[in-house]
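Our collaborator T.R. sent over the components below with a one-line note: 'Predict the complex.' Nothing else. No constraints on interfaces, no templates requested, no preferences about which chain binds where. So this is a plain run: every listed entity goes in together, and whatever single assembly comes back becomes the starting point for the next discussion.
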Amino acid sequence: MPTSAPTGTQPGTTYVSMGHLKPLKIKLELASAGGGGCGTTGGEGKASCGSSDGPQDMPADVWDKVKNHPCYSEEAHHHFARMHVAVAPACNIQCNYCNRKYDCSNESRPGVVSQKLTPEQAVRKVLTVASAIPQMTVLGIAGPGDALANPKKTFDTMRELTARAPDIKLCLSTNGLALPEMVDEICKHNIDHVTITINMVDPEIGAKIYPWIFWDHRRITGVEAATILHQQQMKGLEMLTARGVLTKINSVLIPGINDQHLMEVNREVKKRGAFLHNIMPLISEAEHGTVFGLTGQRGPSAQELKAVQDACMGGANLMRHCRQCRADAVGLLGEDRSDEFTLDKLDDMEEVVYDLEKRKAYQDKVELERAAQHAAKQQALAAATALDAAKDLKVLVAVATKGGGRVNEHFGHVTEFQVFEVSAAQAHFVGHRRVDQYCQGGAGDDEQLPSVVRAINDCHAVLVAKIGACPRDELMQAGVEPVDSYVGEFIEKAALDWFNDYRARVASGAVLHQSRGDAAIRQGAYTALAA
Amino acid sequence: MTHKINSDMCTSCDACEPVCPNVAIRVKSGIYTIDPKKCNDCESHFDDPQCVSICPVDDCITEV
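Returned assembly:
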Protein backbone atom coordinates (compact mmCIF):
# COMPACT_ATOMS: atom_id res chain seq x y z
CA MET A 1 0.00 0.00 0.00
CA PRO A 2 1.25 3.09 -0.99
CA THR A 3 0.64 4.68 2.08
CA SER A 4 2.20 2.57 4.41
CA ALA A 5 5.04 1.02 3.32
CA PRO A 6 6.34 -2.14 3.29
CA THR A 7 6.80 -2.60 6.54
CA GLY A 8 5.21 -5.15 8.12
CA THR A 9 5.17 -5.62 11.51
CA GLN A 10 8.49 -4.94 12.30
CA PRO A 11 10.31 -3.61 14.94
CA GLY A 12 11.25 -0.34 15.28
CA THR A 13 9.29 2.23 13.64
CA THR A 14 9.57 5.61 14.76
CA TYR A 15 7.27 8.37 14.95
CA VAL A 16 8.77 11.64 14.96
CA SER A 17 6.49 14.04 16.24
CA MET A 18 6.53 17.31 14.72
CA GLY A 19 6.98 20.58 15.94
CA HIS A 20 3.73 22.19 15.49
CA LEU A 21 3.16 21.61 19.10
CA LYS A 22 6.18 23.59 19.84
CA PRO A 23 4.66 26.85 20.77
CA LEU A 24 2.56 25.06 23.27
CA LYS A 25 5.29 23.00 24.64
CA ILE A 26 5.34 23.84 28.20
CA LYS A 27 7.26 21.20 29.99
CA LEU A 28 4.88 18.54 30.88
CA GLU A 29 5.85 16.57 33.78
CA LEU A 30 3.44 13.88 33.67
CA ALA A 31 1.86 15.37 36.39
CA SER A 32 -1.54 14.31 36.18
CA ALA A 33 -1.37 10.96 35.36
CA GLY A 34 -4.80 11.04 34.51
CA GLY A 35 -4.20 11.76 31.07
CA GLY A 36 -1.05 10.52 30.45
CA GLY A 37 0.00 11.19 27.19
CA CYS A 38 2.29 9.44 25.50
CA GLY A 39 5.26 9.15 27.17
CA THR A 40 5.84 12.51 28.04
CA THR A 41 9.01 12.83 29.21
CA GLY A 42 11.03 12.14 26.45
CA GLY A 43 14.43 12.23 27.53
CA GLU A 44 15.97 15.44 26.72
CA GLY A 45 12.69 16.99 26.16
CA LYS A 46 11.99 14.94 23.16
CA ALA A 47 9.50 12.38 23.44
CA SER A 48 9.60 8.85 22.74
CA CYS A 49 6.31 8.52 21.24
CA GLY A 50 4.02 9.97 18.95
CA SER A 51 3.00 12.78 20.85
CA SER A 52 5.29 12.61 23.57
CA ASP A 53 3.24 14.99 25.36
CA GLY A 54 0.46 15.08 27.81
CA PRO A 55 -2.58 17.19 28.43
CA GLN A 56 -0.62 20.23 29.49
CA ASP A 57 1.29 20.30 26.25
CA MET A 58 -1.46 20.86 23.83
CA PRO A 59 -4.90 22.32 23.50
CA ALA A 60 -7.63 20.24 25.06
CA ASP A 61 -9.16 19.38 21.71
CA VAL A 62 -5.87 18.03 20.39
CA TRP A 63 -5.26 16.03 23.54
CA ASP A 64 -8.71 14.61 23.24
CA LYS A 65 -7.92 13.44 19.75
CA VAL A 66 -4.71 11.63 20.62
CA LYS A 67 -5.04 10.33 24.15
CA ASN A 68 -6.79 7.09 23.28
CA HIS A 69 -5.27 6.62 19.87
CA PRO A 70 -2.78 3.77 19.86
CA CYS A 71 -0.99 5.06 16.78
CA TYR A 72 -0.63 8.63 17.96
CA SER A 73 0.15 8.00 21.60
CA GLU A 74 2.83 5.58 22.68
CA GLU A 75 1.17 5.16 26.01
CA ALA A 76 -2.28 4.57 24.57
CA HIS A 77 -0.95 1.75 22.45
CA HIS A 78 -0.58 -0.40 25.54
CA HIS A 79 -4.28 -0.12 26.28
CA PHE A 80 -6.23 0.59 23.15
CA ALA A 81 -6.72 -1.29 19.94
CA ARG A 82 -7.20 -0.24 16.37
CA MET A 83 -8.52 -1.99 13.35
CA HIS A 84 -8.11 -1.50 9.65
CA VAL A 85 -10.73 -2.40 7.11
CA ALA A 86 -9.57 -3.26 3.63
CA VAL A 87 -12.14 -1.43 1.54
CA ALA A 88 -9.65 0.43 -0.65
CA PRO A 89 -7.73 -1.94 -2.92
CA ALA A 90 -6.99 0.45 -5.79
CA CYS A 91 -3.92 2.62 -5.95
CA ASN A 92 -2.88 5.56 -8.05
CA ILE A 93 0.87 5.14 -7.74
CA GLN A 94 3.39 2.31 -7.74
CA CYS A 95 6.01 2.01 -5.03
CA ASN A 96 9.08 -0.17 -5.35
CA TYR A 97 8.51 -1.58 -1.86
CA CYS A 98 4.92 -2.57 -2.40
CA ASN A 99 3.28 -5.50 -4.07
CA ARG A 100 -0.44 -5.62 -3.52
CA LYS A 101 -0.69 -9.02 -5.11
CA TYR A 102 0.79 -10.66 -2.08
CA ASP A 103 -1.90 -12.19 0.05
CA CYS A 104 -0.96 -14.56 2.77
CA SER A 105 -2.36 -14.82 6.24
CA ASN A 106 1.10 -15.47 7.59
CA GLU A 107 2.39 -12.24 6.23
CA SER A 108 2.05 -9.11 8.21
CA ARG A 109 2.99 -5.85 6.62
CA PRO A 110 1.19 -2.90 5.14
CA GLY A 111 -0.50 -3.42 1.86
CA VAL A 112 -1.18 -7.03 2.70
CA VAL A 113 -4.69 -8.17 3.29
CA SER A 114 -6.59 -11.39 3.26
CA GLN A 115 -10.09 -10.22 2.47
CA LYS A 116 -11.26 -7.15 0.68
CA LEU A 117 -14.51 -5.80 2.03
CA THR A 118 -17.38 -3.80 0.65
CA PRO A 119 -18.30 -0.74 2.71
CA GLU A 120 -21.35 -2.62 4.10
CA GLN A 121 -19.23 -5.57 5.16
CA ALA A 122 -16.67 -3.24 6.66
CA VAL A 123 -19.26 -1.47 8.79
CA ARG A 124 -20.62 -4.76 10.06
CA LYS A 125 -17.13 -5.93 10.90
CA VAL A 126 -16.29 -2.75 12.78
CA LEU A 127 -19.49 -2.86 14.87
CA THR A 128 -18.91 -6.52 15.71
CA VAL A 129 -15.28 -6.05 16.67
CA ALA A 130 -16.00 -2.91 18.69
CA SER A 131 -18.65 -4.77 20.66
CA ALA A 132 -16.36 -7.72 21.35
CA ILE A 133 -13.25 -5.64 22.07
CA PRO A 134 -14.05 -2.49 24.05
CA GLN A 135 -10.41 -1.42 23.68
CA MET A 136 -11.02 -0.87 19.98
CA THR A 137 -11.13 2.91 19.70
CA VAL A 138 -9.74 3.57 16.26
CA LEU A 139 -10.74 2.56 12.77
CA GLY A 140 -8.40 3.18 9.90
CA ILE A 141 -8.67 2.79 6.16
CA ALA A 142 -5.19 2.12 4.97
CA GLY A 143 -5.28 0.18 1.82
CA PRO A 144 -4.25 -2.28 0.60
CA GLY A 145 -4.26 0.47 -2.01
CA ASP A 146 -4.72 4.15 -1.29
CA ALA A 147 -7.71 5.29 0.75
CA LEU A 148 -8.12 8.39 -1.42
CA ALA A 149 -7.78 6.56 -4.71
CA ASN A 150 -11.01 4.81 -3.64
CA PRO A 151 -12.91 7.83 -2.38
CA LYS A 152 -16.40 6.41 -2.71
CA LYS A 153 -15.67 3.24 -0.77
CA THR A 154 -13.64 5.06 1.84
CA PHE A 155 -16.16 7.79 2.54
CA ASP A 156 -19.22 5.52 2.35
CA THR A 157 -17.65 3.48 5.14
CA MET A 158 -16.77 6.55 7.17
CA ARG A 159 -20.22 8.08 6.83
CA GLU A 160 -22.00 4.99 8.07
CA LEU A 161 -19.63 4.56 11.00
CA THR A 162 -19.98 8.15 12.12
CA ALA A 163 -23.71 7.49 12.42
CA ARG A 164 -23.57 4.09 14.08
CA ALA A 165 -20.41 4.14 16.21
CA PRO A 166 -19.90 7.77 17.12
CA ASP A 167 -17.19 7.10 19.72
CA ILE A 168 -14.80 5.47 17.27
CA LYS A 169 -12.09 7.68 15.87
CA LEU A 170 -11.69 7.55 12.14
CA CYS A 171 -8.43 7.83 10.28
CA LEU A 172 -7.06 7.14 6.88
CA SER A 173 -3.74 6.66 5.15
CA THR A 174 -2.74 8.04 1.81
CA ASN A 175 0.23 8.54 -0.44
CA GLY A 176 -0.92 12.13 -0.81
CA LEU A 177 -1.35 12.25 -4.59
CA ALA A 178 -5.10 12.84 -4.42
CA LEU A 179 -5.04 14.53 -1.04
CA PRO A 180 -5.49 18.23 -1.90
CA GLU A 181 -8.73 17.63 -3.77
CA MET A 182 -10.06 15.44 -0.93
CA VAL A 183 -9.40 17.67 2.05
CA ASP A 184 -12.91 19.12 2.09
CA GLU A 185 -14.41 15.64 2.03
CA ILE A 186 -12.08 14.47 4.82
CA CYS A 187 -13.18 17.33 7.05
CA LYS A 188 -16.83 16.62 6.31
CA HIS A 189 -16.53 13.10 7.72
CA ASN A 190 -15.07 14.02 11.02
CA ILE A 191 -11.79 12.31 10.25
CA ASP A 192 -9.28 13.81 12.57
CA HIS A 193 -6.18 11.79 11.83
CA VAL A 194 -4.56 11.41 8.45
CA THR A 195 -1.35 9.56 7.69
CA ILE A 196 0.66 10.52 4.63
CA THR A 197 3.53 8.35 3.46
CA ILE A 198 6.31 10.71 2.48
CA ASN A 199 9.63 9.10 1.60
CA MET A 200 11.33 12.04 -0.04
CA VAL A 201 11.25 15.77 -0.66
CA ASP A 202 13.72 15.52 -3.54
CA PRO A 203 12.20 14.17 -6.76
CA GLU A 204 15.57 12.77 -7.87
CA ILE A 205 15.39 10.48 -4.85
CA GLY A 206 11.68 9.96 -5.41
CA ALA A 207 12.36 8.58 -8.87
CA LYS A 208 14.26 5.72 -7.25
CA ILE A 209 11.28 4.85 -5.06
CA TYR A 210 8.28 5.44 -7.32
CA PRO A 211 8.37 3.97 -10.83
CA TRP A 212 5.15 5.71 -11.86
CA ILE A 213 2.05 7.62 -10.88
CA PHE A 214 -1.36 7.84 -12.53
CA TRP A 215 -2.09 11.52 -12.90
CA ASP A 216 -4.37 13.54 -15.10
CA HIS A 217 -5.38 10.43 -17.04
CA ARG A 218 -1.83 9.44 -17.85
CA ARG A 219 0.86 7.21 -16.45
CA ILE A 220 3.80 9.43 -15.62
CA THR A 221 7.25 8.10 -14.77
CA GLY A 222 10.61 9.21 -13.46
CA VAL A 223 11.48 12.56 -11.94
CA GLU A 224 8.37 14.16 -13.41
CA ALA A 225 6.18 11.69 -11.51
CA ALA A 226 8.06 12.20 -8.26
CA THR A 227 7.86 15.98 -8.65
CA ILE A 228 4.09 15.92 -8.98
CA LEU A 229 3.75 13.53 -6.06
CA HIS A 230 6.00 15.68 -3.90
CA GLN A 231 4.07 18.85 -4.70
CA GLN A 232 0.74 17.19 -3.95
CA GLN A 233 2.04 15.77 -0.67
CA MET A 234 3.29 19.14 0.57
CA LYS A 235 0.15 20.93 -0.53
CA GLY A 236 -2.10 18.33 1.08
CA LEU A 237 -0.16 18.45 4.33
CA GLU A 238 -0.39 22.23 4.48
CA MET A 239 -4.13 22.12 3.82
CA LEU A 240 -4.73 19.56 6.56
CA THR A 241 -2.69 21.58 9.02
CA ALA A 242 -4.71 24.68 8.17
CA ARG A 243 -7.90 22.73 8.92
CA GLY A 244 -6.63 21.39 12.23
CA VAL A 245 -6.49 17.75 11.12
CA LEU A 246 -3.68 15.88 12.89
CA THR A 247 -1.20 14.37 10.49
CA LYS A 248 1.28 11.59 10.87
CA ILE A 249 4.01 11.22 8.30
CA ASN A 250 5.19 7.70 7.55
CA SER A 251 8.60 7.35 5.96
CA VAL A 252 10.16 4.11 4.84
CA LEU A 253 13.87 4.02 5.60
CA ILE A 254 15.56 2.60 2.50
CA PRO A 255 19.31 2.26 3.10
CA GLY A 256 21.37 3.90 0.37
CA ILE A 257 18.36 5.69 -1.10
CA ASN A 258 16.76 7.94 1.47
CA ASP A 259 18.45 7.22 4.79
CA GLN A 260 20.39 10.47 4.97
CA HIS A 261 17.58 12.29 3.23
CA LEU A 262 14.99 11.55 5.92
CA MET A 263 16.39 14.30 8.13
CA GLU A 264 15.44 16.75 5.41
CA VAL A 265 12.02 15.12 5.06
CA ASN A 266 11.63 15.53 8.80
CA ARG A 267 12.44 19.23 8.61
CA GLU A 268 10.10 19.89 5.69
CA VAL A 269 7.11 18.09 7.14
CA LYS A 270 7.64 19.61 10.54
CA LYS A 271 7.71 23.03 8.96
CA ARG A 272 4.31 22.30 7.45
CA GLY A 273 2.73 21.30 10.71
CA ALA A 274 2.98 17.50 10.78
CA PHE A 275 2.14 16.17 14.22
CA LEU A 276 4.25 13.02 14.18
CA HIS A 277 6.92 11.44 12.06
CA ASN A 278 7.05 7.68 11.87
CA ILE A 279 10.25 6.29 10.37
CA MET A 280 9.82 2.64 9.51
CA PRO A 281 12.33 0.09 8.30
CA LEU A 282 12.01 -1.17 4.73
CA ILE A 283 10.73 -4.71 4.66
CA SER A 284 12.21 -6.35 1.66
CA GLU A 285 12.48 -9.99 0.76
CA ALA A 286 12.57 -11.57 -2.68
CA GLU A 287 9.55 -13.68 -1.74
CA HIS A 288 7.43 -10.55 -1.34
CA GLY A 289 7.76 -9.94 -5.07
CA THR A 290 8.40 -6.23 -4.71
CA VAL A 291 10.90 -4.44 -6.93
CA PHE A 292 13.17 -3.84 -3.95
CA GLY A 293 12.78 -7.44 -2.87
CA LEU A 294 13.83 -8.65 -6.31
CA THR A 295 16.74 -6.25 -6.72
CA GLY A 296 18.13 -7.22 -3.35
CA GLN A 297 17.65 -3.81 -1.76
CA ARG A 298 18.18 -4.47 1.92
CA GLY A 299 16.33 -3.05 4.90
CA PRO A 300 18.12 -1.32 7.79
CA SER A 301 19.43 -2.99 10.93
CA ALA A 302 17.92 -2.04 14.27
CA GLN A 303 20.76 0.32 15.10
CA GLU A 304 20.72 1.92 11.63
CA LEU A 305 17.04 2.62 12.11
CA LYS A 306 17.58 3.97 15.59
CA ALA A 307 20.40 6.22 14.37
CA VAL A 308 18.14 7.88 11.81
CA GLN A 309 15.32 8.13 14.30
CA ASP A 310 17.62 9.66 16.87
CA ALA A 311 18.98 12.12 14.31
CA CYS A 312 15.43 13.25 13.61
CA MET A 313 14.62 13.82 17.25
CA GLY A 314 15.82 17.36 17.25
CA GLY A 315 12.52 19.03 17.01
CA ALA A 316 9.91 16.64 15.99
CA ASN A 317 8.38 13.87 17.97
CA LEU A 318 9.29 10.51 16.65
CA MET A 319 6.87 7.66 16.83
CA ARG A 320 8.69 4.46 17.61
CA HIS A 321 5.86 2.14 18.43
CA CYS A 322 4.44 1.58 14.95
CA ARG A 323 3.87 -2.05 14.16
CA GLN A 324 3.52 -1.66 10.45
CA CYS A 325 0.19 -3.38 10.62
CA ARG A 326 -1.33 -5.23 7.76
CA ALA A 327 -4.17 -3.49 6.01
CA ASP A 328 -6.79 -5.60 7.78
CA ALA A 329 -5.22 -5.80 11.22
CA VAL A 330 -7.40 -6.01 14.31
CA GLY A 331 -6.22 -5.56 17.85
CA LEU A 332 -3.65 -3.95 20.04
CA LEU A 333 -0.66 -2.79 18.05
CA GLY A 334 1.36 -5.89 18.77
CA GLU A 335 -1.34 -8.40 18.05
CA ASP A 336 -3.59 -9.32 15.21
CA ARG A 337 -6.97 -10.87 15.87
CA SER A 338 -8.30 -10.53 12.34
CA ASP A 339 -8.69 -14.31 12.10
CA GLU A 340 -11.52 -14.11 14.61
CA PHE A 341 -13.49 -11.73 12.43
CA THR A 342 -13.36 -13.10 8.92
CA LEU A 343 -16.40 -12.67 6.71
CA ASP A 344 -17.52 -16.27 7.26
CA LYS A 345 -17.40 -15.87 10.99
CA LEU A 346 -19.16 -12.52 10.86
CA ASP A 347 -21.98 -14.13 8.94
CA ASP A 348 -22.41 -16.67 11.71
CA MET A 349 -22.54 -14.08 14.44
CA GLU A 350 -25.75 -12.50 15.52
CA GLU A 351 -26.39 -8.88 14.72
CA VAL A 352 -24.56 -6.93 17.39
CA VAL A 353 -25.95 -4.34 19.69
CA TYR A 354 -23.48 -1.53 19.88
CA ASP A 355 -23.07 -0.83 23.59
CA LEU A 356 -21.60 2.62 24.15
CA GLU A 357 -21.89 2.36 27.94
CA LYS A 358 -19.90 -0.82 28.17
CA ARG A 359 -17.20 0.66 26.00
CA LYS A 360 -17.02 3.79 28.12
CA ALA A 361 -16.76 1.76 31.33
CA TYR A 362 -13.71 -0.04 29.95
CA GLN A 363 -12.13 3.18 28.83
CA ASP A 364 -12.63 4.73 32.27
CA LYS A 365 -10.90 1.76 33.83
CA VAL A 366 -7.96 2.29 31.52
CA GLU A 367 -7.66 5.88 32.67
CA LEU A 368 -7.09 4.61 36.22
CA GLU A 369 -4.45 2.15 35.04
CA ARG A 370 -2.66 4.87 33.15
CA ALA A 371 -2.66 7.07 36.24
CA ALA A 372 -1.14 4.26 38.28
CA GLN A 373 1.44 3.60 35.58
CA HIS A 374 2.53 7.24 35.63
CA ALA A 375 2.78 7.33 39.37
CA ALA A 376 4.89 4.16 39.42
CA LYS A 377 7.24 5.57 36.82
CA GLN A 378 7.69 8.85 38.66
CA GLN A 379 8.48 7.01 41.83
CA ALA A 380 11.05 4.82 40.10
CA LEU A 381 12.59 7.83 38.38
CA ALA A 382 13.02 9.57 41.70
CA ALA A 383 14.85 6.55 43.04
CA ALA A 384 17.01 6.34 39.90
CA THR A 385 17.99 9.98 40.12
CA ALA A 386 18.81 9.67 43.80
CA LEU A 387 21.13 6.72 43.24
CA ASP A 388 24.75 7.74 42.95
CA ALA A 389 26.26 4.64 41.40
CA ALA A 390 27.28 4.57 37.72
CA LYS A 391 25.25 7.65 36.92
CA ASP A 392 26.26 8.01 33.28
CA LEU A 393 25.10 4.65 32.01
CA LYS A 394 22.39 4.35 29.40
CA VAL A 395 21.25 0.93 28.19
CA LEU A 396 18.47 -0.79 26.28
CA VAL A 397 16.13 -3.24 28.00
CA ALA A 398 13.80 -5.63 26.16
CA VAL A 399 10.42 -6.34 27.74
CA ALA A 400 7.98 -9.22 27.32
CA THR A 401 4.46 -7.84 27.61
CA LYS A 402 1.02 -8.74 26.38
CA GLY A 403 -0.44 -5.32 27.06
CA GLY A 404 -1.60 -3.12 29.89
CA GLY A 405 1.86 -1.57 30.19
CA ARG A 406 3.12 -4.40 32.41
CA VAL A 407 5.80 -7.10 32.39
CA ASN A 408 3.44 -10.00 31.99
CA GLU A 409 4.48 -12.32 29.17
CA HIS A 410 6.39 -15.59 29.21
CA PHE A 411 9.64 -15.40 27.21
CA GLY A 412 8.60 -18.34 25.07
CA HIS A 413 5.31 -16.76 24.07
CA VAL A 414 6.67 -13.44 22.90
CA THR A 415 6.11 -12.49 19.30
CA GLU A 416 7.28 -8.96 19.87
CA PHE A 417 9.59 -7.44 22.46
CA GLN A 418 9.25 -3.82 23.46
CA VAL A 419 12.56 -2.05 23.86
CA PHE A 420 13.10 0.72 26.40
CA GLU A 421 16.10 2.96 26.82
CA VAL A 422 16.90 3.60 30.48
CA SER A 423 19.25 6.03 32.13
CA ALA A 424 19.43 7.65 35.54
CA ALA A 425 17.05 10.32 34.28
CA GLN A 426 14.71 8.47 31.98
CA ALA A 427 12.99 5.31 30.84
CA HIS A 428 11.37 5.58 27.47
CA PHE A 429 10.15 3.37 24.72
CA VAL A 430 12.41 3.27 21.67
CA GLY A 431 11.00 0.49 19.54
CA HIS A 432 9.87 -3.06 19.28
CA ARG A 433 11.36 -6.22 17.86
CA ARG A 434 9.27 -8.82 16.21
CA VAL A 435 10.36 -12.42 16.70
CA ASP A 436 9.12 -15.87 15.89
CA GLN A 437 7.62 -17.37 18.98
CA TYR A 438 10.20 -19.54 20.71
CA CYS A 439 7.77 -21.82 22.51
CA GLN A 440 5.35 -23.65 20.25
CA GLY A 441 2.98 -26.37 21.32
CA GLY A 442 4.38 -26.40 24.81
CA ALA A 443 8.03 -26.98 23.98
CA GLY A 444 10.87 -24.66 23.15
CA ASP A 445 12.15 -24.67 19.61
CA ASP A 446 15.90 -24.51 19.86
CA GLU A 447 16.35 -23.58 16.23
CA GLN A 448 14.28 -20.50 16.80
CA LEU A 449 16.26 -19.31 19.78
CA PRO A 450 19.27 -17.74 18.05
CA SER A 451 16.99 -15.50 15.97
CA VAL A 452 15.20 -14.35 19.12
CA VAL A 453 18.53 -13.56 20.76
CA ARG A 454 19.71 -11.68 17.66
CA ALA A 455 16.57 -9.53 17.71
CA ILE A 456 17.42 -8.17 21.16
CA ASN A 457 21.17 -8.42 20.91
CA ASP A 458 21.62 -4.69 21.56
CA CYS A 459 19.86 -4.97 24.94
CA HIS A 460 21.52 -5.51 28.31
CA ALA A 461 18.56 -7.28 29.86
CA VAL A 462 15.21 -8.81 29.01
CA LEU A 463 12.36 -8.52 31.50
CA VAL A 464 9.96 -11.46 31.40
CA ALA A 465 7.20 -13.02 33.46
CA LYS A 466 8.87 -16.41 33.19
CA ILE A 467 11.64 -18.08 31.25
CA GLY A 468 12.89 -21.64 30.81
CA ALA A 469 16.36 -22.86 31.74
CA CYS A 470 17.59 -23.32 28.18
CA PRO A 471 16.83 -19.86 26.82
CA ARG A 472 18.04 -18.41 30.11
CA ASP A 473 21.50 -19.96 29.61
CA GLU A 474 21.61 -18.97 25.96
CA LEU A 475 20.77 -15.35 26.77
CA MET A 476 23.36 -15.21 29.55
CA GLN A 477 25.98 -16.49 27.15
CA ALA A 478 25.04 -13.86 24.64
CA GLY A 479 25.37 -11.21 27.33
CA VAL A 480 21.67 -10.40 27.71
CA GLU A 481 20.54 -10.76 31.32
CA PRO A 482 17.20 -12.56 31.71
CA VAL A 483 15.18 -11.02 34.55
CA ASP A 484 11.99 -12.55 35.94
CA SER A 485 11.74 -10.73 39.25
CA TYR A 486 9.38 -7.93 38.16
CA VAL A 487 6.38 -9.99 37.14
CA GLY A 488 3.20 -7.96 36.77
CA GLU A 489 4.88 -4.62 37.43
CA PHE A 490 4.55 -1.59 35.19
CA ILE A 491 7.22 -1.65 32.51
CA GLU A 492 9.00 1.64 33.15
CA LYS A 493 9.15 1.02 36.87
CA ALA A 494 10.45 -2.51 36.35
CA ALA A 495 13.06 -1.34 33.86
CA LEU A 496 14.27 1.43 36.15
CA ASP A 497 14.33 -0.82 39.23
CA TRP A 498 16.38 -3.40 37.36
CA PHE A 499 18.64 -0.66 36.04
CA ASN A 500 19.26 0.73 39.54
CA ASP A 501 20.22 -2.73 40.64
CA TYR A 502 22.49 -3.08 37.63
CA ARG A 503 24.18 0.25 38.31
CA ALA A 504 24.80 -0.79 41.89
CA ARG A 505 26.38 -4.02 40.68
CA VAL A 506 28.57 -2.14 38.21
CA ALA A 507 29.65 0.31 40.90
CA SER A 508 30.52 -2.49 43.29
CA GLY A 509 32.50 -4.32 40.65
CA ALA A 510 30.15 -7.31 40.69
CA VAL A 511 29.63 -6.91 36.95
CA LEU A 512 31.72 -5.29 34.27
CA HIS A 513 29.64 -2.98 32.08
CA GLN A 514 30.19 -3.59 28.38
CA SER A 515 28.49 -2.02 25.41
CA ARG A 516 26.25 -4.20 23.23
CA GLY A 517 26.27 -4.85 19.49
CA ASP A 518 23.61 -4.33 16.85
CA ALA A 519 20.36 -6.26 16.49
CA ALA A 520 18.54 -7.67 13.49
CA ILE A 521 15.16 -6.49 12.21
CA ARG A 522 13.02 -9.42 11.25
CA GLN A 523 12.26 -9.52 7.53
CA GLY A 524 10.48 -12.71 6.64
CA ALA A 525 6.87 -13.72 6.82
CA TYR A 526 5.40 -13.86 10.26
CA THR A 527 4.62 -17.50 10.78
CA ALA A 528 4.61 -18.01 14.49
CA LEU A 529 1.05 -18.47 15.50
CA ALA A 530 0.00 -19.08 19.03
CA ALA A 531 -0.29 -22.74 19.71
CA MET B 1 -9.49 -2.93 -31.24
CA THR B 2 -10.40 -3.41 -27.66
CA HIS B 3 -8.66 -4.42 -24.47
CA LYS B 4 -9.01 -7.47 -22.31
CA ILE B 5 -8.07 -8.36 -18.76
CA ASN B 6 -5.95 -11.45 -18.25
CA SER B 7 -7.78 -12.94 -15.30
CA ASP B 8 -4.79 -15.07 -14.28
CA MET B 9 -2.82 -11.94 -13.58
CA CYS B 10 -5.59 -9.70 -12.27
CA THR B 11 -5.41 -8.98 -8.55
CA SER B 12 -8.96 -7.57 -8.42
CA CYS B 13 -7.56 -4.34 -7.07
CA ASP B 14 -10.39 -2.39 -8.65
CA ALA B 15 -8.19 0.44 -9.91
CA CYS B 16 -9.37 0.10 -13.51
CA GLU B 17 -13.13 0.07 -13.07
CA PRO B 18 -13.66 3.67 -11.92
CA VAL B 19 -11.28 5.18 -14.50
CA CYS B 20 -12.92 3.67 -17.58
CA PRO B 21 -14.69 6.46 -19.50
CA ASN B 22 -16.93 3.95 -21.27
CA VAL B 23 -18.10 2.08 -18.20
CA ALA B 24 -16.91 -1.04 -19.98
CA ILE B 25 -15.42 -2.85 -17.01
CA ARG B 26 -17.61 -5.26 -15.11
CA VAL B 27 -17.05 -7.20 -11.91
CA LYS B 28 -18.72 -10.49 -11.20
CA SER B 29 -17.73 -12.50 -8.16
CA GLY B 30 -14.43 -10.70 -7.97
CA ILE B 31 -13.57 -11.36 -11.64
CA TYR B 32 -12.98 -8.25 -13.75
CA THR B 33 -13.81 -8.26 -17.45
CA ILE B 34 -13.98 -5.68 -20.22
CA ASP B 35 -17.08 -5.58 -22.40
CA PRO B 36 -15.67 -5.55 -25.96
CA LYS B 37 -18.78 -3.84 -27.24
CA LYS B 38 -18.22 -0.86 -25.00
CA CYS B 39 -14.41 -0.62 -25.05
CA ASN B 40 -12.96 1.70 -27.69
CA ASP B 41 -9.43 1.94 -26.25
CA CYS B 42 -10.42 5.31 -24.78
CA GLU B 43 -10.31 6.87 -28.22
CA SER B 44 -11.88 10.31 -28.25
CA HIS B 45 -11.51 10.42 -24.49
CA PHE B 46 -7.82 10.19 -23.65
CA ASP B 47 -4.44 9.63 -25.29
CA ASP B 48 -3.81 6.38 -23.44
CA PRO B 49 -6.10 3.53 -22.44
CA GLN B 50 -6.94 4.36 -18.85
CA CYS B 51 -7.15 0.82 -17.52
CA VAL B 52 -3.70 -0.04 -18.85
CA SER B 53 -2.24 3.16 -17.43
CA ILE B 54 -3.40 2.50 -13.88
CA CYS B 55 -3.09 -1.31 -13.71
CA PRO B 56 -0.31 -2.28 -11.29
CA VAL B 57 0.43 -5.59 -12.99
CA ASP B 58 2.50 -5.38 -16.19
CA ASP B 59 0.79 -6.98 -19.21
CA CYS B 60 -2.34 -7.85 -17.27
CA ILE B 61 -4.48 -5.76 -19.62
CA THR B 62 -3.64 -6.19 -23.29
CA GLU B 63 -4.98 -5.26 -26.71
CA VAL B 64 -6.98 -7.82 -28.65
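Summary for T.R.: The helical segments of chain B are 16-19, 50-54.
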